[in-house]
Amino acid sequence: MAVLRVKFTKSQRDKLAQILWLLNWVSVVTGIILFSLGLFLKVEINKKGELMAEREIHAVPNMLIAVGLIACVINFIGGKICYDCVDTNKFLRWKLMILPYIICTFFFTLCILVGALMCYTMHGQLEEALALGLSDAMRFYKDTDTPGRCFLKRTVDLLQIQFQCCGNKGPRDWFQVQWISNRYLDMSSREVRLRSNVEGKYLMDGVPFSCCNVNSPRPCIQYQLTNNSAHFNYNYKTEELNLWKRGCHQALVEHYTHILHSIGLTVLLIWLFELSVLTGVRYLQTAVENVLRQGDPESESDGWLLENSFVETVRSNFNIIKNLGKCNQIDTAVNGDPNIDRPCTAHYGPDNVPPKEMPVAS
């Protein structure tokens, strides 16, 4: 029994073909939107690429870019097919191709759904990449004279100013790394020697200038942050406006999560739209094919999603695949020779006439 059978008249088939032709062109636009979203996400990730560890975070934008390009091609072909379905004679040109086209489009719509779900599931990879990348950037913050790292100080400072954050998880992260270059430290100084750890790195309870909160009513305190006696009318436990309290890891995760969720919702809506167009194309295909079987282009015809139930369709397709495998098997039961049961035949030229026997001389 057919699944979701619908009866179509000639005018309804023509109207459905025209609507699907228009919707396929709209789908070309949605393909461009998918491509643009993937490109936008890739650019946003590359903007902070220096602050991220190497992880598979580019899989989502690459997926969206590829799906967007394929969508433009598939829906362009779909528009041509729907346009020709108005004329049954023109439809005959697509008769052998339309079912493989529908199957390919179905798997393509699944790829769109996967892309939407990936936008919601890459949160863990993003957090890990940012945590490791920010830690490395803070360690190399002081290396302004080292090729390949000299840009990190500027990158981190701009990040902390733009996102109003400080450190990886908070300002105290800067207490664990030497963020002032040895070039600007007097290594013979007693204070520097006292504050240096066993590795010779100068650690201090201070932060870079970019951690300063612009809303603070007093001049920013960057150094000796845990020493109340070093500053007038200051208590580091209750001071809230001096530095940005939020870590840059949290700020970046929130930033990218908002972008990913917005893109994921858009891609999900595009998937629903593509699925509805595919459903319409399937109804149009089955309705026009049934008209061809009846032989009367003006008659009514039935359209459906599946000719049989879902279970029967899966079973029949499985049997087809199994039978294809059996056809390739060779019977080698007797001595393993596949030609053992074949009769011996001889070929005697194009006329297939055996030659006359030559007389034997006595």
From TrEMBL:
GO biological process: visual perception
GO cellular component: plasma membrane
InterPro entries in UniProt: Peripherin/rom-1, Peripherin_LEL, Tetraspanin/Peripherin, Tetraspanin_EC2_sf
Regions that span the bilayer: 21-43, 63-86, 98-118
One family name in Pfam for this protein: Tetraspanin
Domain of life where this protein originates: Eukaryota
Subcellular location per the Swiss-Prot or TrEMBL entry: Membrane
Record's keyword annotation contains Transmembrane: yes
Entry keyword set: Membrane, Transmembrane, Transmembrane helix
Membrane topology: Multi-pass membrane protein
Keyword Transmembrane helix: yes
Family to which the UniProt record says this protein belongs: Belongs to the PRPH2/ROM1 family.
Listed name of the protein: Peripherin 2-like a
Species of origin: Astyanax mexicanus
Higher taxonomy: Eukaryota, Metazoa, Chordata, Craniata, Vertebrata
